[in-house]
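dumping this here before i forget
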Amino acid sequence: MISLLLATRADLICAVTAAALSVVGSGIIILLNVRFKEYRDNFFRNLIFILSIYDAIISFSFMIPGSVGKVFCKFQGYFIVYSALMPVFISLCIAIITYLNVVRRSTKKQLKTLFKKMHIICNVLALSIMFFSILFADSVSFPNTNWCFIKGQEMLGTFYISIWICTIISFILYLLIVKKIREIYKELDGLVDIGDKSRKTENLKVQFRMSTIPLSLIFTWLIASIRRTREIFWENPKQINTLNILQSLTNPMQGLFDCFVFVIFSSYSRKKVKELICCAESEKEKYPPEIDSDSKL
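structure:
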């Protein structure tokens, strides 16, 4: 009993800590986009901004203990379905948009219109799966973790399979994108116009970093998928405390992962974070302008 209590407390601490760090990571990306016009003017950084908003929402939902009440536990269980699916769906949309831009050479104007439609479809799908879970799922359970979740085999088919289908498709698309980006880099070596080369290179860097998004999804959902599969197909499976703690650490972490990729590993974004906090330089580095709406990479 004591060991179970300690494990539950460890789950709680890990989940809240991971979620809080993820909120901070998402918040940094959101603040950069809100504060600096050069971020708002860059279409692909705007896509990451939208993804970060959904990352922050799912992290917040993990921060509040589901044990505060039965009604809230049910609300949290159902809301997690929507808030967890949206970053996955948006990640797939970003992969499709990036593929169309890099490989198929679609223009920014075309991609903006397409993304608006895809964003609506993503919300409809996520809400549909959430309402499906309300109607057909077995129950909402508060296990030895920080949050409530929906039990039942229906959730394996609608929730986790949806996540992994999107992740696998995104991964395949980014393999094609990275291959094409490498080819474009070789073409850029022959450019004489330094300004044009700098502009295109900066866009390619952002798009190349986007190729890590499927890795963040795998990192976020692998442990949770293993654990839920055990609980669905094995009757009363033995609780593995290490697995529970790993899920508590990884489930809310996509926002922090994205912050590392798009901020920490970007020298320009690190400078803008310093400027945002306290250390604005007298002569600001100019961010390379994005490719015009009717031009192609």
